[in-house]
């Protein structure tokens, strides 16, 4: 790792910089292996540092102290990405890093990972591979050939379903993805990836991605219910069957690159893009429920439809832009399936608490993924500038989530509102966002909402 980082520093000093969102960042930290630049190795590094103020769910405790509110400074993502293209047909890709290190969690797993000491709570998180795959181009596009096809395999991100499911974390417009866009997250996938084979390509304005994968094993034990109406499915796929996934979209205006799987969240008016897409994911016998001692197995069936718009508006010299994304998910993961999640949740259950606890649990946990329907929409506006090369730009945004899960028997709505202070496009930005989340006392019984404010420092090169 030290050698890699030293190499990055050398090439940063020697290369012209370029990347999404900034006119100053050309081809990135890139090592050309021939004079034309067609053979190369490219590096991308990025950090996302969060400072948060959280209104915790009722009954929360942090490090043995009751905590209605909490504050922390945390590492949301620390990543290093590398890929090489030695001919137009061959590409090898690796992506390593850590996620979600706070002062109480995200540290080394295993003995000694809690409490005081060199391996205490939150310390020394383990670096792991997010992606590791190889790719071969079967059909290359050309002026006379609108069709292209590439095949690849490994631990990959071509997981279909929706644009947000394959979103880049470098240029998300909001402070983060809504998380339910990754419905298998850290259960039958490894941080939104599975091991398998994929096919990708284009035909004129149509782009496609399909994959066949071996899901990671899950083994949760279902609770024995007295009737089918009370049965609750949990992740338990046994000797896993192959999963299939796909996503197809039509690009009405400019064509987006599909060299890598990552979908751009906001082009900041540098492109004119309008896409309509649809996707799916299916895993046979992936969950189990139990009724009177008898086990039933259920397929995971996920579908989505979405639309993405990034449009420069007004006079070109003002560089204003509108960004919008809307997606509808239909999730079937077995009867009453529900997962409660919270990003970098700091809290545990306070055993001394005597009030009514949140059904989801302590901290910032909320009902996030489950059998049911989700509608998510976000919109942002890049404020016009009067300067040819402004030092900073402002992009206010808002997002709305509607979730209607079978188990909860009551739908919920939640909001995000914030703004990006773009110091150098997406390469250096500060994001502030306030988010609400629903709190349930019991099935079908809401207890209003709780809030969370996040301030993010994001830099990528």
Give the SSE layout.
Elements lengths: L1 H13 L2 E3 L2 E5 L2 E4 L7 E16 L4 E3 L2 E2 L2 E17 L4 E12 L26 E12 L7 E10 L37 E10 L2 E9 L9 E2 L8 E2 L7 E9 L21 E19 L2 E20 L6 E13 L5 E4 L6 E2 L16 E5 L1 E11 L10 E13 L6 E11 L5 E15 L2 E16 L1
Parallel strand pairs: 13-16
Antiparallel strand pairs: 1-2, 3-4, 4-7, 4-26, 5-6, 5-20, 7-8, 8-9, 9-10, 10-11, 11-12, 12-15, 14-16, 15-16, 16-17, 17-18, 18-22, 19-21, 22-23, 23-24, 24-25, 25-26
Describe this structure in words.
This protein is an all-beta fold. It has a single domain (2-460), classed as Porin (Beta Barrel). Helices cover 3% and strands 53% of the residues. It is built from 1 helix and 26 strands. It has one helix spanning 2-14, and strands at 17-19, 22-26, 29-32, 40-55, 60-62, 65-66, 69-85, 90-101, 128-139, 147-156, 194-203, 206-214, 224-225, 234-235, 243-251, 273-291, 294-313, 320-332, 338-341, 348-349, 366-370, 372-382, 393-405, 412-422, 428-442, 445-460. The radius of gyration is 23 Å and the shape is globular. The two termini are 17 Å apart. This is Porin. It comes from Sphingobacterium populi.
